[in-house]
């Protein structure tokens, strides 16, 4: 596991010390660059530029440090920034960060949670929320929470933080609650959602599968395609049109929307069914037919998405 910069140098021979100093300088330079990249993203919302800048650092071994810095900065800022950080973590995990990077980054955050709490009083609660959101966004799997927990004593703040994250991630209707865990979407995320709605409305009018698939691909956020599925299914119920099933089949066939994202999208619709039936009396019946259709065509993981 990567560690932060030590406070004291161990006794080293001249050659080892020279190598150590070079690595220390490299780490300091990286931290400064990472901070600049993060702050620029939080100001500009330009995710594509951030990803390019991170790749251009050519230091994948420091990816966990980037994650630690991103989450630490966000914990001490407003909800809008926390939402942007969670969303960015999803993008980075799809584009350039490995699961090991994310695990190590969160382990570093957990290792230092007691120190962080000296400056951010509710740091443990906020970190638990980031962990739960990471599970909800498929950045981490549930088993990763257990693996993280194995290295901490049961009475430690880190272990309590993980337990809180587990409760948040697996509570009833966790998907919708965690989507709004930072008090609502950032302006950036709202823009993406508006693009998705416009794309789906155009598809409902034209039925142009090719154009709709290209539009979804061009949005360039495969980790957020569960929103396409959710919005599409709800729109289909409202308009009493099953045309969305053809689009989902095309997206599945072309690899535009993954089984994981399809399953997540169906799950999110199921989670808000109590609200949907108030406006669409037959919503549950329609949704159940969609689930059976999805299972028949292998779009979704059957164990993860059930009828209502």
Per the CATH scheme, the topology name of the largest domain is: Serine Threonine Protein Phosphatase 5, Tetratricopeptide repeat
Strand content: under 5%
General shape: globular
Largest beta-sheet characterization: none
Query: How does the helix and strand content classify structurally?
Result: mainly alpha
Give the N-terminus to C-terminus distance in angstroms: 43 Å
Quaternary class: single chain
Radius of gyration: 22 Å
CATH class of the largest domain: Mainly Alpha
Poorly predicted parts: 1-9
Written description of the protein model:
Keywords: Cytoplasm, Nucleus, Repeat, Translation regulation. This is Programmed cell death protein 4. It is found in: Cytoplasm. The chain is mainly alpha-helical. The chain has two domains: 166 residues, Serine Threonine Protein Phosphatase 5, Tetratricopeptide repeat, CATH 1.25.40.180; 110 residues, Serine Threonine Protein Phosphatase 5, Tetratricopeptide repeat (Alpha Horseshoe), CATH 1.25.40. 73% of the residues lie in helices and 0% in strands. Helix 1 packs antiparallel against helix 2. The radius of gyration is 22 Å and the shape is globular. The N terminus is likely disordered.
């Amino acid at each position: 596991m990567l560690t932060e910069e030590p406070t004291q140098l161990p006794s080293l021979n001249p050659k080892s010390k020279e190598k150590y100093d070079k690595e220390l300088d490299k780490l300091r330079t990286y931290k400064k660059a990472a901070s600049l990249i993060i702050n620029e993203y939080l100001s500009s919302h330009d995710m594509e530029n951030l990803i390019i800048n991170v790749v251009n650092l050519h230091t994948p071994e420091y990816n966990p440090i980037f994650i630690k810095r991103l989450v630490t900065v966000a914990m001490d800022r407003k909800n809008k920034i926390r939402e942007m950080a969670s969303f960015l973590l999803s993008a980075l995990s799809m584009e350039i960060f490995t699961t090991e990077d994310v695990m190590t980054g969160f382990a570093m955050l957990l290792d230092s949670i007691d120190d962080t709490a000296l400056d951010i009083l509710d740091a443990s609660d906020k970190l638990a929320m980031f962990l739960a959101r990471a599970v909800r966004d498929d950045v981490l799997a549930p088993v990763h929470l257990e693996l993280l927990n194995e290295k901490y004593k049961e009475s430690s703040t880190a272990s309590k933080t993980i337990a809180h994250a587990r409760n948040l991630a697996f509570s009833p209707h966790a998907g919708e609650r965690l989507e709004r865990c930072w008090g609502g979407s950032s302006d950036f995320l709202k823009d993406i959602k508006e693009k998705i709605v416009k794309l789906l409305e155009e598809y409902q009018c034209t039925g142009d599968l090719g154009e709709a698939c290209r539009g979804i691909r061009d949005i360039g956020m495969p980790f957020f395609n569960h929103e396409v599925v959710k919005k599409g299914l709800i729109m289909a119920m409202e308009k009493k049109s099953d045309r969305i099933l053809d689009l989902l089949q095309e997206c599945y066939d072309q690899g535009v929307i993954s089984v994981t994202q399809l399953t997540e999208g169906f799950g999110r619709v199921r989670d808000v069914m109590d609200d949907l039936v108030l406006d669409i009396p037959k919503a549950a019946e329609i949704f159940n037919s969609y689930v059976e259709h999805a299972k028949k065509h292998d779009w979704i993981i059957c164990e993860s998405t059930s009828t209502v």
